[in-house]
Amino acid sequence: MKYYPILDVGGTGIKGGVLTESGALLGDIVSLSSRAREDKETILQNLCGVICTLYQQVQDCNKTLGGVGFSFPGPFDYQRGISLMKGLNKYDSIYGVDLKAELRARLGKALGTPCSLPLLFLHDVEAFALGEMRMGLAKGFDKVLYLCIGTGAGSAFSRGGEILKTPEPGVPQNGWIYATPFGESIIDDYISARGLQALALKHTGQRLDGLALAKLAQQGDTGAQEAFAQFGNHLAQAMESFLAQFCPNALVLGGQICKSFDLFGGPLTAICRQRGVTVLQAHNTSESVLKGIFSLLRE
Fold this sequence. Notes:
Elements: E1 3-9, E2 13-20, E3 25-33, H1 40-55, H2 61-64, E4 68-72, E5 76-77, E6 82-83, H3 99-111, E7 119-123, H4 124-135, E8 143-149, E9 153-159, E10 162-163, E11 181-182, E12 185-186, H5 187-190, H6 193-204, H7 210-218, H8 222-246, E13 250-254, H9 261-264, H10 266-274, E14 278-281, H11 285-298
Parallel strand pairs: 1-4, 4-7, 8-13, 13-14
Antiparallel strand pairs: 1-2, 2-3, 5-6, 8-9, 9-10, 11-12
Helix pairs in contact: 1-3, 4-11, 6-8, 7-8, 8-10
């Protein structure tokens, strides 16, 4: 049996897990710092260290590993394994670095043997979409829109079991809605952690994160409740044209902020109900990401 260590690499943290050939998690998902603002060597050694931590869950790892997978935010050359992030306050120091070569070299030293394992890189929300489409809530739906709300508004579209990347009505280039004009700027400035923080500041006088704001709202704070209400209206307005033009059968939600969907999801749910769109909320976004990457590695 082969095992597949997979890393969901974000701007602040890395979540990793080992999947078996059947797609089951071996043990728990581990969470570690990404150290994304540090120098090149620190970032590379940190990634290698996470992989080695996952190796420890597998006996005879040199003989039983089928490959290692990574999800990364963009911009990124996923085919070649090269980060193109620059000026985003994360991973600047590995801009243009061949991560496949660098990680193989470090893994070879760590394991005491040359590393020739397949290394696969994938966009984080595309990985989420694949996980939900092939092994999760979206199975059985033909046309699906995926939305992860966290640092930004991550999105993907699928039809007939394929991820859509070419523009068509309701589907932007790569399936990424974040740069679509909205309000006074773009969707990403409104449907994101910073968008919610701006509303928190406006209505409570404090720049609270989503978790703190949710606790206030649940305690009956009217300012916090109003911030979520306005966020929900922005979300519904931002998504309406994509729902109208793409006409998905289902909308699958993920990301940290969507854990508080009951506080702001009413307007979007109402639009989806009118259009016959089933709204589904992922149980564990990171687990879906890991399973999406695994499904490609297994192929």
